[in-house]
Amino acid sequence: MPAAALLRQRSRTVILAATVPLALAALLADDVRVRRQLDAARRDPLTGLPGRDVLTDRIERLARSHREQLHVLVADADGLKAVNDSLGHAAGDILIAAIGHRLGAWAAGRSEMAARLGGDEFGAALLLPPTVIAREITGLRDILEQPVDIAGHLLRPAVSIGVARAVDLPDAASASRLLRGADMAMYRVKTREKPAGYTATRQDAYMPTVHGRRPGRPGTHLPVG
Description:
This protein is an alpha+beta fold.
């Protein structure tokens, strides 16, 4: 091959090799942008927290890698209907937003995730030693129950929290099973059947449901236990 032709071929090869990393970088940048847009779309507009599906994915990953320390929490704001009825739904939204922001900041300070599950119910996935979980839950409840100023009305929300530990359930237990256990534990605390800080048992996690709703929720008729 003539020297000039060989030089042109090598030049094209060098240019192609240089453009491939740039193309990959552009694709990766687009992928990051798309993922960020999807993440933003999946966030609750009222609290800025991700939804149940994002939390479920996080729980599944942690259950595979950090099962011994994985705790799943469900928190419920008590008395929201009374706030909506007396002060209006806008006031109820302010209350939900305040609780969501507080829970999100608390979880982020522990490098973990909180989510809004729906209505006035929230969830979180945490990696904590079992010896500190009771203290952490007490501290969290104190944070969530700080007063909220709503149009000059100083309201102190009441919050019930339930906990489920991955190690207390079979290895094959899913994220939805852990969330069900934490939800059932929260309900037992809410109804004062169990003290604050109650941790779900296997029975709680495998409690039968009606159309996916645990006993005790409006519209269900199964006994609680």
